[in-house]
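Re-run with default settings, no changes from the original entry. Doing this only to confirm the output is reproducible before filing.
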Amino acid sequence: MDKKEIFSQIIEMEEKISFLYQEIGNLKVKIVALLEENHHMQIENSQLRQRYEEENIGKNNHNINSETLNEERKTIGEGYDNLARLYHEGFHVCNLHYGSLRTEGDCLFCLSFLNKS
């Protein structure tokens, strides 16, 4: 083997490695999209289960549940409840990142916004 052959093999290997890095990057993007979709589906699934359970319980104890829910909504407010629920489901409710997933734990902006009331 002469020096040119070795050098050309190294260049060929670098190109292959570069291509593999690009494929890994594309796979990472797809995995992130799938994870976000999975998270949204889990949230939707839990909400549907909760609604289903509320409807079944509501048929049995309609008067008791409606009075309790109305009292809770009057004291805290339905909008605040929705924002708090979104935050606990893993989404930002602050004006900086509203609606995006929280990936690094608690957000100080969201927490200060929720504690204003």
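The helical segments are 3-60, 62-76, 78-88, 108-114. Residues 77-117 form one domain.
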